Structure formats: structure tokens, C-alpha cells
TrEMBL record:
InterPro entries: Phage_virion_morphogenesis (IPR006522)
Name of this protein: Phage virion morphogenesis protein
Organism of derivation: Rhodobacter capsulatus (Rhodopseudomonas capsulata)
Pfam families given in the database record: Phage_tail_S
Length: 183
């Protein structure tokens, strides 16, 4: 997975041991991990709607400049990490996937900008120039424009964790293991 993959383990020692004991009694673990992947994917997708992390903490709000930029592009300005332009949803939420194996499940996103939104970070932009027509950036083939200098600058992206295991996820995973063993 090129974007981001997060490794987590159950927080409670008793839950961890209970899951280990159950896993030891299972045969082929890939179907179980596939189910765990679905649990974690559904939970991660729900976080985009609630705009909060696995621990329940709300994500940092969008900056006013981001809201203004989205409005100019006819996008919905209120949903964090999601955009909707002319009915086409191009969001991080849509890129999430789960890859189960015999030993674990990896939940993540292949998009290259997924990690900075999960973990936060700074993007350093070099000085350069852009072509502008009036007060808008434009393609160089548009007439009446000019090159303008852009100073070097940094963009700070706050961490907005969407992948992780919540307390409810831990309960669901243990329930799935118990159900798997009872079949």
C-alpha cells in the first residue's frame, strides 16, 4: 500500500490475550482477518461522517481559506477530507481498503497524500512562479495572463486520524472471533 498503513493492537491486555487464545483455536485465519478488515473499514468510513478520530476526538476544523477555496470551486466546504464537485466524489474515504492475509489485516489507503492527513505534517513549497489571468491561476494557453512570483512557504496539515481501533472496534473484533469459533 503506497499511501498509509497503520499497525495497531488491542489496548487492553485481557482483550489481547483473549483474542490470541481464540486465534490459536482457529484454522485458516484469512477469512477471519477479512471480517476484521470490514469492521475496521466501516469504522474508518464512519469517522469521515463524524469527523473524529478513533478515540472520539474531533478533527481540526477547516481553515477559512480552505472553505473559501472550496466554495470558489463549487465544492461542499463543510466536510473535512471529502470534496464533491459536480456530483463526483473524490475523497480519501472512497480510497480506503483492507488487505487480509493469514497473519493480519492491513487497512489503509493507496493515495499518496493519505499519510499526511492521518499523521499531520508540514509541506514545504519552494519559490516559483504561476500563470495568472486576473486574480486566478490559469493554464498558460489563456490569453491576457502573466507570470507572478510565489514565495517559498509552508503548509501545515493537522493530523486527522481516520484509521485506528476504537474501543467499540475492539469489542466487535472479539465478538467476531467468538462468532467465528462458534460456527
Amino acid at each position: 500500500m503506497a499511501g498509509i498503513s497503520v499497525s495497531v493492537e488491542l489496548q487492553e491486555a485481557a482483550a489481547r490475550q483473549a483474542l490470541r487464545d481464540m486465534l490459536a483455536r482457529m484454522g485458516d485465519l484469512r477469512p477471519f482477518y477479512k471480517g476484521v478488515g470490514e469492521i475496521l473499514l466501516n469504522s474508518a468510513r464512519e469517522r469521515f461522517d463524524s469527523q473524529s478520530g478513533p478515540n472520539g476526538a474531533p478533527w481540526a476544523p477547516l481553515k477559512p481559506a480552505t472553505v473559501r477555496a472550496r466554495i470558489k470551486k463549487n465544492q461542499l466546504p463543510l466536510m473535512i477530507l471529502q470534496s464533491n464537485t459536480n456530483g463526483k466524489n473524490s475523497s480519501l474515504k472512497a480510497s480506503l481498503n483492507a488487505i487480509p492475509s493469514d497473519k493480519d489485516v492491513r487497512v489503509g489507503s493507496p493515495v499518496r497524500w493519505a499519510a499526511i492527513h492521518q499523521l499531520g505534517g508540514t509541506i514545504n513549497k519552494d519559490a516559483g512562479s504561476r500563470y495568472m489571468v486576473g486574480r486566478r491561476f490559469a493554464q498558460r494557453d489563456k490569453e491576457g495572463g502573466k507570470d507572478v512570483s510565489i514565495k517559498a512557504h509552508s503548509i501545515r496539515i493537522p493530523a486527522r486520524p481516520y484509521i485506528g481501533v476504537s474501543d467499540l472496534d475492539q469489542e466487535r473484533i472479539l465478538e467476531a472471533a467468538e462468532e467465528w469459533l462458534s460456527v
